[in-house]
Design brief:
The chain has 543 residues and is of the alpha+beta class. Helix 2 packs antiparallel against helix 7. It has a 4-stranded antiparallel β-sheet. Strands 8-7-6-9 form a 4-stranded mixed β-sheet. It contains 9 helices and 10 strands. The longest helix has 129 residues.
């Protein structure tokens, strides 16, 4: 059920004459050859959106709508310049990409051409490598054989020398024994034994010393003399053997030196061939890797070129569209059009306020008007009025508050189904489980009563109930706090409070109000501020 609100309509009716004059002037300005039908249609659409609503002829909204075609042309011109710059840069980028792709392709083709040559070079070097490897292995085997021969010759030389040394030692022992035997013969006694070489000789010597006779001494002397006479021939044979061994060692050493020299030469040859083969293999691997990288780079560049071509095409379409919009009105006609609107462009609302029907500004949230903050409560009318004045604003009038709450149809809602605790921060009753969510004050709103925190949580933060916002933007006009208004009662120093559907004897709606002394403070009573738009229209601007 709805009821008509004549107070709201009376408060905001006005501006018909100046609106009509401005509309006539704008229609005259666009009725010229240098304005296209498209631009004329946009202006007519802006004028059609401004009409007599139930409450107000919305002149500021019409001004704002009439600025839109001019703004669109200005934006289109700026966009055209920006798009032209972007298009130029992207075309340069495309040229750079195409150059890089050509360079990459040339480098890839050069690598592809060079790769077979390097593979053929590798095939030519591989036989030389195999031959050098075989020669090196043969040289290594030969040197090892010569080393064995040299070791054998050295052993033979050492053996001959050891034999000669043993022969000399034997000769010395024989001479020593003969001296002993001669001495024994002269003294007619058993000869002393010389220092034996082994334990067996020691035993034999003792037996000899015990049982030896003169005849035996002579026999031993003869035997030793015969052995002594044979030593020179044995020494000569050993000398010959040593000389032959040394000659063999010298020859083996010479052969070993020659073999090592050949081995060094074969190793140098092998290293040279191996280095050449390694370089060719590395170059082949580098070329194959380069070809793979160049192919991948070509794909990447092709993708970038495709993306650039797509972007250029899109930019050209957007540029053509921007130029088309910019050309819907000539520069001269546009300047005159904007000049006609210029006197009305300095209006609007401060940050944090909503424009209501293009006529007045209202804080979006309850004071301190910050989204997400808890609103201030327990504020007297005097303090609220001062806080708004300090902010360069004022308290809202009763008609403003009711109009913003009711919406553009200018009717007050009187059914509980219009609002609910799911959409607004409401207290639909007074006591019990369905008691008020904001305050426990008595429903006659004149005298205080019991206050129960268990059923009365703190006021909701700004914008907590989005579905309860006014069509014009202000939040919590229904629900949350009661709010002070500027209107005074017939009694001195008594001011209005808009209940907005919070705990009362009435159902939630936009029309309930009550009156309190200016010094009253309640834990569920706050306020919000209103203001007039800046530099509202002046009729003299259209004379």
């Amino acid at each position: 059920m709805f009821s008509y609100n004549p107070a709201a309509r009376a408060a905001y009716t006005g501006g018909e004459v100046v609106t009509a004059k401005l509309a006539a002037r704008m229609r005259a300005l666009i009725s010229r050859d240098d304005v296209t039908p498209e631009y004329q249609a946009k202006v007519e659409a802006a004028l059609d959106r401004t009409f007599d609503k139930a409450c107000v002829r919305d002149f500021p909204a019409m001004v704002l709508a009439l600025w839109a075609p001019a703004t669109a042309v200005d934006n289109a011109k700026a966009e055209a310049l920006r798009l032209a710059d972007s298009l130029g840069l992207e075309r340069k980028n495309l040229a750079s990409l195409q150059t890089r792709r050509a360079e990459n392709t040339a480098a890839r083709d050069a690598a592809v051409t060079l790769l077979p040559k390097k593979q053929e070079a590798r095939k030519q070097i591989e036989p030389d490598y195999a031959a050098a490897q075989a020669a090196l292995d043969a040289s290594r085997r030969q040197v090892q054989s010569l080393i064995d021969i040299d070791d054998s010759a050295r052993k033979n030389v050492r053996s001959a020398k050891e034999k000669l040394q043993a022969l000399d030692q034997r000769e010395q022992r024989i001479d020593a024994r003969l001296q002993v035997l001669k001495q024994a013969t002269e003294n007619c006694q058993a000869p002393e034994t010389t220092e034996p070489e082994t334990k067996d000789e020691t035993a034999n010597s003792e037996n000899k010393n015990e049982n030896i006779s003169g005849q035996e001494i002579l026999e031993e002397i003869k035997k030793l003399m015969l052995e002594l006479d044979a030593l020179p021939a044995a020494r000569a044979a050993l000398e010959t053997e040593r000389t032959a061994a040394e000659q063999a060692l010298s020859a083996a050493s010479d052969n070993l030196a020659a073999g090592q020299k050949r081995l060094a030469a074969d190793r140098a040859t092998f290293d040279d061939v191996a280095d050449r083969l390694g370089e060719v293999k590395k170059r082949i691997a580098d070329l194959e890797s380069e070809i793979v990288q160049r192919n991948a780079r070509e794909k990447d560049l092709d993708a970038q070129i495709t993306e650039s071509l797509t972007l250029i095409a899109n930019l050209e379409v957007k540029l053509a569209e921007a130029k088309r919009v910019a050309d819907t009105i000539s520069d001269k006609a546009l300047a005159e059009y904007k000049a006609a609107l210029k006197p009305f462009d300095n209006w609007g609302c401060a940050s944090g306020m909503a424009m209501v029907e293009g006529t007045f500004c209202m804080d979006i949230y309850e004071y301190p008007n910050r989204k997400g903050d808890r609103p201030a409560v327990g504020v007297s009318w005097t303090d609220a009025e001062q806080a708004c004045r300090d902010a360069g604003k004022r308290l809202c009038t009763d008609a403003e508050w009711a109009f913003a709450c009711a919406g553009p149809d200018c009717f007050m809602r009187h059914t509980p189904n219009d609002y609910s605790s799911e959409t607004c921060n409401l207290g639909l009753g007074f006591y019990g489980e369905a008691g008020p969510r904001i305050s426990g004050w008595r429903p006659d709103m004149q005298e205080t009563g019991p206050y129960d925190d268990t059923v009365n949580p703190e006021p909701a933060a700004g914008a907590s109930f989005f579905a309860c916002d006014s069509p014009y933007g202000p939040a919590d006009l229904v629900g949350n706090l009661w709010e002070w208004i500027a209107d005074t009662h017939k009694r001195p120093n008594v001011h209005g409070v808009r209940i907005g559907g919070n705990p009362s004897q009435f159902e939630p709606n936009c029309g309930d109000a009550s009156w309190y002394d200016a010094s009253t403070t309640l834990p569920h009573l706050g306020f919000r501020c209103c203001a007039d738009p800046r530099s509202m229209f002046a009729e003299t601007a259209l004379k």
